[in-house]
Amino acid sequence: MEEIIYNQKGGKMGKIDLPSDIFGLEMNNDLVRQVVSAYLANKRKVIAHTKDRGEVSGGGKKPWRQKGTGRARHGSIRSPLWKGGGVTFGPTKERNFSKKINKKVKRKALFMSLSSKVRDKEIVLIDKIELDEVKTKKMLGIINNLKEKIGKDLKKGVLIVQPGSDRNISLSSRNIQKTKVIRADNLNLLEVLSYKYLLILSPEETIKLIEKKYEI
């Protein structure tokens, strides 16, 4: 699979053969949906929590004697029958929503999504981006130079994948709407699907890092 490499001005720099085991897979929507569901479940935080009768305060003493008062028998004001008592069958922090993701399945789903973006012309390979200072306007200009290659509707999101950490690129991109910079070794399915377009910097080095991480 041959793809064109561009420079930051939008000019052609050359071509590269993309490995078919990463960028040449057929899409399996059910598998991708399964992995996305697991990602979202694992990110879910348990917020709602109610106290049962063992957690509410008070109730160390029997409210009144068992017999002779004419009132119903009670052993503790912490009973769910009492106002301020424990809650029966309420939500607790002990709930676990996490799902196990098989390593090979997670890898395959990511590669399927990358393959889909290649087929839909939503991936642009860039030789490198050089910024001598942190400047949002310059970074936006570079993205606009690639508009014809990426797509005119940049509001749908641009994910910039780089092999290492470049402070100028990261800081210059953070105020651009729906744009994010990520390292190649942190690339995951959820990020790829959250942004319509992918800009891959230094493609040879980036692809090697992806292959190394996923042991290809």
From TrEMBL:
Part of the 50S ribosomal subunit. This is Large ribosomal subunit protein uL4. One of its GO terms (biological process) is translation. Transmembrane segments: none annotated. It comes from the Bacteria. Forms part of the polypeptide exit tunnel. One of the primary rRNA binding proteins, this protein initially binds near the 5'-end of the 23S rRNA. It is important during the early stages of 50S assembly. It makes multiple contacts with different domains of the 23S rRNA in the assembled 50S subunit and ribosome. The gene is rplD. One of its GO terms (molecular function) is structural constituent of ribosome. Gene3D superfamilies: 3.40.1370.10. Belongs to the universal ribosomal protein uL4 family. Pfam families: Ribosomal_L4. Keywords: Ribonucleoprotein, Ribosomal protein, RNA-binding, rRNA-binding. Residues 62-76 have a biased composition (Basic residues). Residues 51-77 are annotated as: Disordered. GO terms for cellular component: ribonucleoprotein complex; ribosome.
